[in-house]
Automatic annotation (TrEMBL):
TM regions (residue ranges): 25-50, 62-88, 94-122, 142-165, 199-223, 235-254, 274-296
Domain G-protein coupled receptors family 1 profile: 43-294
Compartment(s) of residence: Cell membrane; Membrane
Membrane topology: Multi-pass membrane protein
GO CC annotations on file: plasma membrane
GO molecular function terms noted in the UniProt entry: G protein-coupled receptor activity; olfactory receptor activity
Record-linked SUPFAM superfamilies: Family A G protein-coupled receptor-like
Keyword annotations of the record: Cell membrane, G-protein coupled receptor, Membrane, Olfaction, Receptor, Sensory transduction, Transducer, Transmembrane, Transmembrane helix
Record's function text: Putative odorant or sperm cell receptor. Odorant receptor.
Family of the protein in this entry: Belongs to the G-protein coupled receptor 1 family.
Protein name from the UniProt record: Olfactory receptor
Principal localisation: membrane
Amino acid sequence: MLLSNVTSTHPAIFLLMGIPGLEHLHVWISIPFCSAYTLAVLGNCTLLFIIQADAALHEPMYLFLAMLATIDLVLSSTTLPKMLAIFWFKDREINFYACLVQMFFLHSFSIMESAVLLAMAFDRYVAICKPLHYTTVLTRTLITKIGIAAMTRAVTLMTPLPFLLRRFHYCRGPMIAHCYCEHMAVVRLACGDTRFNNIYGIAVAIFIVVLDLLFVILSYIFILQAVLQLASQEARYKAFGTCVSHIGAILAFYTPVVISSVMHRVARRTAPHVHILFANFYLLFPPMINPIIYGVKTKQIRERVLRLFLRKDV
């Protein structure tokens, strides 16, 4: 039954609409989505295998990269399988509690990814600005603490959301105008005063994006100052070249976030499917592109990948 139990404050299930207005194109849209997800899974699993198998890569930069790959796998796998089920089989039903779990994982791991990108900026700052202290500063203990801190921050900030959403009565029906259980898409179905949810969601987004991005920018200001002080142009290129992959990962993660945020506020009359496509792009693009960026631009990773796939010819 699709109807809510009258004695319950929430429906037993929600119905995910997919991409409203483009339902007739769901099968075609699923092709790039499925391709991107396949690349994300293969690329990130390959990165994790290479880093785990090669002791020479058990260094801070690659340990942070392993964290990033793990987060990308969870982030994409939280939403894409259900999305593809909607596109291919019209399987729109999602249990209320499963919806809350999906939302929790989605937003928590997005926050973790932002934290790991910040940690990677710190790694590049120490490597370039304090090279003699690199191994003494970025110890295994500190890296573990950074990972735990990133997880704790995300879980602490996102734990209130499921409990806040449980208290609402959902009188606007079970239809979620989205491909997955995004916080504000669920809030729009709730009756009563949702101002706290709105304010809390915006505050967390601003806190994470602004704070993390500010520290990333500060790190690169110090890095740029250190690079410009190097004597030779070749040394400058080499030093800054170690940051190219990380800059690419930052752009891949934050650019869709900023564009989507601006569109929600500036282009409010834009068709809903445009906003949803941008939201999906934000979830799909970083997990897909990060392994490619690091595989192409990082010599050590590139060499291991070639060795892995060309082993028979060596």
